[in-house]
Structures are given as structure tokens and as C-alpha cells.
Specification:
Layout (H helix, E strand, L loop, with lengths): L10 H4 L7 H13 L2 H4 L5 E2 H8 L3 H13 L3 E4 L2 E4 L1 H9 L3 H18 L2 H7 L3 H5 L6 H7 L1 H14 L1 H10 L7 E5 L5 H9 L4 E6 L1 H13 L6 E5 L12 E5 L6 H9 L6 E6 L10 H6 L11 H11 L2 E9 L2 E7 L7
Parallel strand pairs: 4-5, 4-7, 5-6, 7-8
Antiparallel strand pairs: 1-3, 2-3, 8-10, 9-10
This protein binds S-adenosylmethionine.
Length: 341
């Protein structure tokens, strides 16, 4: 899945953007996404008035808003007609589902609100919610309370992680393994890719109930119900036994307690798989993971090296780490036949 990163914008547009003011343009694009401008214009041409009616735009802002999108290279305009450029069709329609449109732009607005206290946070070391006197944000609780948000978040990741999942399936040799536990497996995107690639493999997606329901639907769509099941549970309460591969994808931070269980529960020769955009050992990469640190809920910035050390200290051996796809690290470790602890 591709993101509309700056390098994909026309040079003439980039040349006019001052990095300190780039956030204004970002906010306009986020508003366009939240109003679903590009979806309204998908495959059609509309007048400003018709767009204004459909999106409920005030006449004060209607033309400047649409013309700013033209200036950004996202819309085209002829006389009073507007339509999506090829770029907008690709990155805001073809490359993302409606879940992604809804969830990602919602997260951008939340991030923006959090950044309003950035300087206080930098000076005090407090998180944004502490400065504002709010309770610590808990996305898990929000998903439990709001099934629509659970669906948007989970299905956004289903699309966003397709590339990671395919890369993982080509990289991982599971020929000697039979049963995989996908810890906090979300939409099931990773299990589906691995089970498709390995005809002998069975997988279990462990997650909270609203997410499991969505994963089960994805599994049914791919006709893999005989080999992939879901299991409702809280990973903080322990992992089930009976699996010879334990996998953690994009679930930071992984506590030492969980890693220790991933070591103890499988039989000897059991495999642990970690997959995430871990920070480089010198702490400078990837940039978007660093940026997330200032707007997220405090997931931490584990480095690849720290994760390897954590696996070693649990007893795992034959540890391998490789960056296979974009900024994503795959780390594997094996539980030795004779325990080294
Ligand atoms: C960022 S998503 C990653 C999903 C999936 N592993 C993937 O790579 O697409 C994190 C997942 O962890 C699940 N999760 C977080 N804390 C959990 C807990 N205590 N028990 C069960 N699931 C949890 C969330 O519901 C969510 O589906």
C-alpha cells in the first residue's frame, strides 16, 4: 500500500511549500479526506456548487477550498467543473479503503490537537493528556465501546499491512511448523498471508472480541475458515498453549512477561516472530516512528537491538533480524531443544 508521501507530489507544488507552514496544507487535505471530497468526485466531474451542496461547504470557503486542492495537484478544474487528478484517484481512492479514509484522517485530527501542547510537553516531560488533565487515552477501551471505530481501525490496518504481510510470508520459512498463534492479530492480515503460503499451517488470531469478529469476517471472505480461527482474550492475561510459532506483529510495546511466555509455552524448537517498524540502533530512523512519539499514547521507541537483547535474555537462540520491506524489521528466535537458562 502506498502513502501520498511528498516525493509523489509534483515538484512545482513542493517548491511552493514552506516546511513550517506545511501543516496548513496538511490540515486542508485532512479536511478533504474527512469530508470525503475525493470519494464524492470519484470518476465524475462536478460543479463547485454541487460539491458544496454535497459536502455542506459554506460559500465563503467553497471556491478557495476547491482551488487550493487544484493548486496542490489533487483536483483539476475547467471552467466551473472539478474532478480528481490521477494522483488523488490513486492515493485517496485506489490505495485506501473507506476505513482508512475515516480512521487515518481521524487520527490526524487527534494528533493535531495533541501537538497544541508540544512545547509544554518538551519542557515538562509530561504527555499531552497529563498537561490537558485528561485520562490516559485507551484505544482498546474505545474499540470495545465503539464497534464502528474497531472496524475502521482494524480494517484500515488490513489494507495498510498487505505489503508487510506478503513480505513476511515470502521471508518466513514455516515448513517445519504447524500451529501459529497470531498475538493481537487484529484483522488477521498476517495469518491469512502465512496460511495461504503454507498449505500445512493452521493459525489462531488472538484479540479482543470486537476485533475478532472483524478478523473472522476477513477469514470467511478468504475461505480459510478451516485453517484460521479466532480466539477472544486479553494478551496481558497470558498466552494459550499448543502453538509452535508465536507471532507479534505491530504491537508495541511487548512486555518481558509476554516474551517470556512466548518462550515457555511452545515446545523446544518453537519459533518466535516479531515484526514492527523498530527504531534503528542509533535512534534516528524511521522518521515517522519518531514523529509518532510526540502524538501517540506513549508506546515507546524500542530499537531493533533492544528487542534482540530482550529475546536473548528470555533464552531464545538463533536470533535473526532483517529489514525486508520498507522500514519493517522481521526478528525471529528459536527456543533451543536444551534450555540455556
Ligand atoms: C496495531 S494492531 C496490529 C494488528 C495485527 N497484528 C497487524 O499487524 O495488523 C494491534 C492489535 O493489538 C490488539 N491488542 C492490543 N492490546 C491487546 C490486549 N491486551 N489483548 C488483546 N488484544 C490486544 C488490538 O486490538 C489490535 O488489534
Amino acid at each position: 500500500m502506498e502513502l501520498p508521501t511528498l516525493d509523489k507530489f509534483p515538484k512545482r507544488v513542493l517548491a511552493k511549500i514552506d516546511i513550517q507552514k506545511a501543516f496548513v496544507l496538511s490540515c486542508l487535505i485532512i479536511a478533504a479526506e474527512r469530508l470525503q471530497l475525493f470519494r464524492v468526485l470519484h470518476d465524475k466531474r462536478m460543479t463547485a456548487e454541487a460539491i458544496g451542496k454535497s459536502l455542506k461547504l459554506h460559500t465563503l470557503y467553497r471556491l478557495p477550498f476547491l482551488n487550493a486542492m487544484v493548486s496542490l495537484g489533487l483536483l483539476q478544474k475547467q471552467n466551473d467543473l472539478y474532478w480528481n487528478t490521477r494522483f488523488a484517484e490513486q492515493y485517496f481512492i485506489e490505495e485506501r479503503s473507506i476505513y482508512w479514509t475515516r480512521q487515518y484522517s481521524r487520527e490526524c485530527v487527534i494528533a493535531y490537537e495533541r501537538l497544541t501542547v508540544l512545547e509544554q510537553a518538551l519542557a515538562s516531560g509530561k504527555r499531552h493528556y497529563q498537561i490537558k488533565g485528561f485520562p490516559k487515552p485507551d484505544y482498546l477501551e474505545r474499540m470495545k465501546r465503539n464497534p464502528r471505530e474497531a472496524e475502521d481501525f482494524t480494517q484500515m490496518l488490513f489494507y495498510l499491512h498487505q505489503g508487510d504481510a506478503e513480505a513476511l510470508a515470502s521471508y518466513l520459512d514455516l515448513s517445519q511448523h504447524r500451529k501459529l498463534l497470531d498475538v493481537a492479530g487484529g484483522s488477521g492480515v498476517m495469518s491469512i498471508a502465512l496460511v495461504k503460503k503454507n498449505p500445512h499451517l493452521h493459525a489462531c488470531i488472538l484479540d479482543i472480541a470486537p476485533v475478532c469478529r472483524i478478523a473472522a469476517r476477513n477469514v470467511r471472505t478468504t475461505k480459510l475458515t478451516r485453517r484460521i480461527r479466532t480466539l477472544t482474550g486479553d494478551i496481558q492475561r497470558g498466552l494459550p498453549t499448543g502453538y509452535d510459532v508465536i507471532m507479534f506483529c505491530d504491537i508495541r510495546p511487548i512486555s518481558m512477561r509476554l516474551l517470556q511466555q512466548a518462550y515457555e509455552k511452545p515446545p523446544p524448537d518453537g519459533l518466535v516472530v516479531l515484526m514492527d517498524r523498530y527504531v534503528s540502533d542509533d535512534g534516528t530512523d524511521p522518521l515517522d516512528r519518531l514523529a509518532e512519539h510526540f502524538v501517540g499514547s506513549g508506546f515507546g521507541l524500542a530499537t531493533r537491538g533492544q528487542m534482540i537483547e530482550a529475546l536473548k535474555s528470555c533464552g531464545f537462540r538463533r536470533i535473526k533480524s532483517k529489514k525486508i520491506y520498507q522500514d519493517v524489521w522481521f526478528i525471529t528466535g528459536v527456543r533451543p531443544v536444551v534450555s540455556s537458562q
